[in-house]
Amino acid sequence: MAKHKIQFNWGTIIALLVSFAALITTIYEANILKSQQQAMVWPYFEVGPTYNGEGFGFRAKNSGTGPAIITSVEVLHNGEPIGSFMELLRDVSPKDSVVNLYNYNYQSLNNTVFPPGEERMVFFMKWSPLNRMLEQRVGEIDIKVEYKSVLDDYWTYTLSTGEHVQERFQSSKEFFTSD
To answer: Do 18 and 68 fall within a single domain?
Structure first.
């Protein structure tokens, strides 16, 4: 019976080890580049109440480094979804009150893009006796917004908690500006 002796070619073994190390380094660097790319286009979208001498409203802002693409908006009044700005006004206004639409400005958030650093007034109500009463009821309103980055990373912002959660959200009743 002949014995076979295994011979090691140290040059080949070293070349394999160097190749394996290069592969691991490439994977690690690719992960770093992906993280840097995500950070460069990361949106941070918020909506909140604002007040001044002319009236009060809600302002939306993207404080992130990339555009915020709004994909879903839900407005709740006392936990119930509202479908439009006019429906919201009817719900929060005292019975038998006349709503003067010239005292209100509003624009839709749905399917809009907020560039980095952009801030917009989305609802604004000029001071009037009725609007001062409505302002007292702002705490009954909650807003939930789903937004995404250009890399399709999704977040949900909730006004009442101030939380940004990295998850998908689809409103049970999309909020639009008109009936």
So the answer is: no
DSSP secondary structure, 10-27, as one string: HHHHHHHHHHHHHHHHHH
Structurally, the chain folds into a number of domains equal to 2
Tokens in use for 18?
């160097």
Structure confidence by residue, pLDDT tens digits, 46-86? 999 998 999 988 999 999 999 999 999 999 999 999 988 88
Phi-psi region of 148 (alpha: psi -120 to 50; beta: other; left: phi over 0): beta
pTM above 0.85, yes or no: no
Q: Is the pLDDT of residue 179 over 60?
A: no
At residue 153, does pLDDT exceed 90?
yes
Say which CATH number the domain at 95 has.
2.60.40
Domain that holds residue 147: 45-165
Looking at the fold, whether 80 and 15 belong to one and the same domain comes out as no
87, part of any domain: yes
Q: Look at strands 154-158 and 163-165 and give their pairing.
A: antiparallel
